UniProtKB/TrEMBL annotation:
Family (UniProt): Belongs to the glutamine synthetase family.
Protein keywords: Ligase, Magnesium
PANTHER family: GAMMA-GLUTAMYLPUTRESCINE SYNTHETASE, GS CATALYTIC DOMAIN-CONTAINING PROTEIN
SUPFAM superfamilies in UniProt: Glutamine synthetase, N-terminal domain, Glutamine synthetase/guanido kinase
Cofactor(s) the record lists: Mg(2+)
Lineage of producing organism: Bacteria, Pseudomonadati, Pseudomonadota, Gammaproteobacteria, Cellvibrionales
Annotated protein name in UniProt: Glutamine synthetase family protein
Residue ranges annotated for the GS catalytic domain, each copy included: 110-444
Xref: Gene3D superfamilies: Glutamine synthetase, N-terminal domain, Glutamine synthetase/guanido kinase, catalytic domain
Amino acid sequence: MDKITSWLAEHDIAEVECLVPDMSGNARGKFTPTDKFLTQDSRLPESILVQTVTGDYVDEHNELVDPADTDMLLVPDPDSVRLNPWANDPTAQIIHDCYTRDGQPHPISTRNILKFVLEKYKEKGWKPIVAPEVEFYLIKRNLDPDEKLSAPVGRSGRTEKTRQSYSIDAANEYEPIIEDMYNFCEAQGLDVDTLIHESGTAQMEINFLHGDPLQLADQVFTFKRTVRETALRHGIYATFMAKPMEDEPGSALHLHQSVVDLKTEKNIFVDDHGNENDSFMYFIGGMQEYTPGFISFLAPNVNSYRRFTPEMAAPTSLHWGYDNRTTGLRVPDSSPQGKRLENRFPGADCNPYLAIAASLACGYLGMINKVAPSAPYQGDCSKETITLPRTQEHALNLLTECEGAAEMFGKKFVKAWSAIKRDEYEEFNRVISSWEREYLLLNV
């Protein structure tokens, strides 16, 4: 706490946001005056870890957490201390780790799941390196859920109607918003790099510098809050839905992954001559073999599976290839030390802690079990047969059958995740869509 205490005093902080990432990757927590934060333990009900995205509690609640709805202990991570640049008074935001009452890391905390996976790498003398790329849409304020989403008005007074991939002028339409976003990111120490205009209308992508997986997950978690807040200040919304509009591409959270030796800091994916080695091939093989079982962590919501559509810039099968953006697993051109694999399966709607943990878990299992990959794919992979799950229910069935998920994440977490996501799926299934009313009402 000495480091945190000094930082709070240096910045004259009046209030602290005690944050915990929930299952959806959103912030739960409490506001605490600084003097109380420094003198009292922080706690939250552990039941918040088993809430669905609609705010309901799963039927298995009493099997997963204490039926008495007891508190869990929160421990602040000094590496996650940041200013809240949009608060009216000097405010800090600090991400906390969750512990049970007996002092053990809480098995249903999503941040702990990533730490569990990273510990397995550490035991082998390895350290993963990741670099996320996060896509999102800026959209006009939408107060009616039945109304279709659309792009907001830009500086020109007009809205986008055509594809504007990598357009500088199209991105500049939203320059005031982007400038505020970058200012907020800088104030929080987020390692954001380049921004591009993606192919969707008012769709952007921000790249993060490569680094430690836990720190990058914290940054993506913080970045999502930042972008939403920035958009609201300009009278619009920002959304990380995987597929917010039917005629526009989905939004992804691509993950570049490499692994270095803890002692030498050398990339373990290449040999002494800079050539790809067995470890790299096994990592790719693991991604192919285990991604179906872990896919619900990369595509966590009912909407996520709308993104896996041919001709919409999203993967639909488990192929890999060299510098091939039509495959789900891409090996970018790089130097030997930068040898890495890009995972293009995760949607922007994922919990960054779980998506990074799942992706690294698949590669780890591939290296441990020496899983050989298929041959690299040549050409346009979007023409191939769709082999990814197309529904949340299918993905959860694959998770139940995946022994690797229970091994890497723990049986209790897998049970909790499955219970939450099955409840969400059943909730969604009760809603009759406009498509059904349009085409089935009088025609069947």
